[in-house]
Amino acid sequence: MLRxxxxxxxxxxxxxxxxxxxxRPNRTPKQVRTLGWVLVGIGAFLVxxxxxxxxxxxxxxxxxxxxxxxxxxxxxxxxxxxMFGIFGVIALFGLLxxxxxxxxxxxxxxxxxxxxxxxxxxxxxxxxxxxxLLFL
Length: 136
What we know:
This protein is mainly alpha-helical. The protein has one domain. It is built from three helices and two strands. Strands 1-2 form a two-stranded antiparallel sheet. A hairpin with a 6-residue loop joins strand 1 and strand 2. It starts with a strand and ends with a helix.
C-alpha cells in the first residue's frame, strides 16, 4: 500500500524504512498513532495545569483585599487581564496540541496543517514571553 512520506510527500510503500526521495525515516501508522497519544497527553497536561494555575491565582487576587492574607496581588485589573490572557493562550496551545494528537491517532498520519498551527502558536507564545521580559 502506498502512502506519502511525512516530510516530503513522496509516495512510498509502507515497508520502506527510509524515504527514497528525502532520506528521512518513514514512520509506520502505529508509530504515528503512538506519537499522537503523547501529544494528546502533553496537551491535556497543559490545559489542566493552566486551569489549576488560574484557580490558584484567582483565589490570590480575590483575597488581596484582605489585610490578613499572607499572599497579595499588587497589580491592577489590566495586569490581571494580561496574566489570565497568557494563561488562556497557553491553554489554547494545549487544546490545539490535543486536537493535532487526536487527528494523528484517528488517521494514522500527521496532519500537517494542524501541526503548523500548533507550531506557529508555540512560537508566538515564546516570542510574546521574550518581548514581555524586555518591556516589563
